[in-house]
């Protein structure tokens, strides 16, 4: 799925899908579901766009009902809800801030009521702010990374756990940066590594309950996060996204969704505490 990306920028996070040039692809038109998630109930944070939308559309095609949480991108959220309903599945979109434990508790409650249960939790909502120098990172920017990327994963998971039964799965979207580091994203990299620790420790805690916890560590993927984080600093860097991977390109969101299907489904029944590296060929240790 090679992409030609124009230099571009979006002024603030979260970014939005419809002004991306080119538009991203979230599921291959020829992706066939085979009932791997029939009647499962999924909650995906940041499910309105990008990687979260891809997971949502793949889950629905595999037979799941899906709730998405998003911050404020109402149009993107509805563009995700529509194709899920077209698959004949239930879909709800819940706007709010995952940095608030009160909101996370409410959102999980709303999901369980609307879908009739919860089997799959995808912690995926995230922010990243570029800074070339650690001394330029303000307390507020540092804290915001921690609030959304770490606390959000904890609050949603804590609220979800009482509803999860044997066979349930939890998936964290981490990042290649947790493994390789990124000199321009120290705060973000810190949170993505914390998510790996969270994933591994929780996997051990829940193993004997039959609840599996795994992570996906994407490389560069064409999502609104890219023009909204790198764009204001360097629009040309957006155009060159992924050129440093062995495949020489970034991924489409559609290339991520199937990894979430695998981790959410019975296909990965002997895997917990592990990470799938969907990154264009970078060899990762750990
Ligand atoms: P995206 O902008 O489509 O998704 C991020 C989502 O997070 C947004 O849709 C937004 O609704 C949500 N969000 C942000 N702040 C929030 C808040 N306070 N409360 C609730 N929701 C909030 O971009 P994406 O790239 O698909 O990002 C999804 C995940 O993938 C993130 O965790 C990101 O770190 C990770 N990731 C992305 C890439 C990439 O190259 N795009 C690479 C590695 C990891
Ligand atoms: Mg979005």
From TrEMBL:
Keywords: Oxidoreductase. The keyword Oxidoreductase applies. InterPro entries: NAD(P)-bd_dom_sf (IPR036291), SDR_fam (IPR002347). GO terms for molecular function: oxidoreductase activity, acting on CH-OH group of donors. The keyword Translocase does not apply. Belongs to the short-chain dehydrogenases/reductases (SDR) family. This is Short-chain dehydrogenase/reductase SDR. It comes from Acetobacter senegalensis. The lineage of its organism: Bacteria, Pseudomonadati, Pseudomonadota, Alphaproteobacteria, Acetobacterales.
